[in-house]
Design brief:
- The chain is of the alpha/beta class.
- The chain is built from eleven helices and twelve strands.
- The protein has an eight-stranded parallel sheet, sandwiched between helices. The protein has a two-stranded antiparallel ribbon with strand order 2-3.
- It binds 3-cyclopentyl-N-hydroxypropanamide and zinc ion.
Length: 370
């Protein structure tokens, strides 16, 4: 069993500039400039924590390449791809569309390298060079729709890789599991009418995008039934997410029988993350990963390929990512989550009726899959 790994220093060079964390600085309005929340730091520290304990040496390094425009156009409109290039060519960069998604000078090529890195990782998995893999890419992608960037996302790398797998690698059915704290609205929208791609999103209810990711968003036309959402109340942690995995994600994957499982792997549902109010620990991510690995082994020759999405705590995201990757690579290091003890008193809360209700609503929809 071999685990592939994609990383490149250029991912750290995507410049999101200064802002006031998320909104643009505006001194006249009292909004002082600060580093943007989607900055390289947490990703840099993830890579360091994969390297320092020796885990990097157990992985197969897969070199990324820039996705071609033709590969991007399987998902995005020509006008949108051109918009990102135009913004990227500006001396001071620009924005992908919603005002929250900085495009640094040169970010067009970096976002292409993120999408191309995931394509290369999926290709290695389908060719059997690796069993599964992790692409530590930046900028993130799961909010980007065919024609709009949002939520820090430029190109939807997961969607580009899914379409590549179908067009070039002969795969028919692709499942996308998204456990980033925020709704995978872009990926859902791109495949909303397409029964060949199942999208399943577990996220904090009504967080971002606002009023998005409700259980009732279940696909349209031929795709009816092939979009599943589990909007979990703020404060949801281990019990709720594992219940959702067992009640919704795994039964849906079993019914859909994908040829590949793609994971939009956000760690911002972590207990210390500033961009959401969920309470997953590194141990939670480890257990959720185990379940997905077992599903991939059962359904699609172990093909589980993950793309890094959110995860903004520079001191906690690395431990969640390490736990995920140790499980993916079926190995361990000497590093344990040093903050587990800090949250032990509250991160293991039992399932609440509200969480059970949200999960129950989605569970009803799994039977529509065929
Ligand atoms: O981590 C993210 C980004 C969420 C933010 C984008 C603007 C406000 C919330 N999406 O998965
Ligand atoms: Zn997120």
């Amino acid at each position: 069993m071999t685990t592939g790994y994609v990383f490149h220093p250029e991912y750290l060079w995507h410049d999101t500039g200064t802002s006031a964390g998320v909104v643009l600085a505006n001194p006249a309005a009292g909004i002082a400039p600060a580093v943007h929340i989607e900055n390289p730091e947490a990703k840099r520290r993830v890579h360091e924590l994969i390297h320092a304990p020796g885990l990097l040496g157990e992985l197969m390094i897969i070199e990324p390449r820039r996705a071609t425009v033709a590969e991007l156009l399987r998902v995005h409109t020509e006008a949108y791809v051109q918009h990102i290039k135009t913004q990227s060519d500006l001396h001071g960069g620009g924005d992908a569309g919603d005002g929250y998604s900085p495009v640094g000078h040169g970010s067009y090529d970096i976002a292409r390298l993120a999408a191309g890195g995931l394509i290369e990782l999926v290709t290695a998995a389908v060719h059997g060079d690796i069993t599964n893999g992790y692409a530590l890419v930046r900028p993130p992608g799961h909010h980007a729709t065919a024609d709009a960037g949002m939520g820090f996302c430029l190109f939807n790398s997961i969607a580009v890789a899914a379409r590549h797998a179908q067009a070039e690698l002969g795969l028919a059915r692709i499942a996308v599991v998204d456990w980033d704290a925020h709704h995978g609205n872009g990926t859902q929208a791109i495949f909303y009418d397409d029964p060949s791609v199942l999208t399943i999103s577990l996220h904090q209810a009504n967080c971002f995008p606002p009023d998005s990711g409700w259980t009732t968003e279940n696909g349209v036309g031929e795709g009816a039934g092939y979009a599943l959402n589990v909007p979990l109340p703020p404060g949801s942690g281990h019990a709720a997410y594992l219940h959702a995995m067992h009640q919704v994600v795994l039964p849906a994957l079993n019914r859909f029988a994908p040829d590949l499982i793609l994971l939009a792997n956000g760690f911002d549902a972590g207990v210390f993350d500033p961009m959401a109010r969920q309470m997953l620990t590194a141990a939670s991510y480890r257990e959720m990963t185990r379940l997905l690995i077992d599903a991939a082994d059962r359904l699609c020759h172990g093909r589980l390929v993950a793309a890094h999405e959110g995860g903004y705590s520079p001191f906690y995201t690395p431990y969640c990512a390490l736990a995920f990757l140790e499980e993916l690579a079926a190995t361990t290091t000497h590093v344990t989550d040093p903050l587990a003890v800090v949250v032990a008193g509250y991160a293991a809360e039992p399932l609440t009726p509200q969480q059970q209700a949200a999960i129950g609503e989605a569970t009803q929809l799994v039977s529509r899959l065929h």
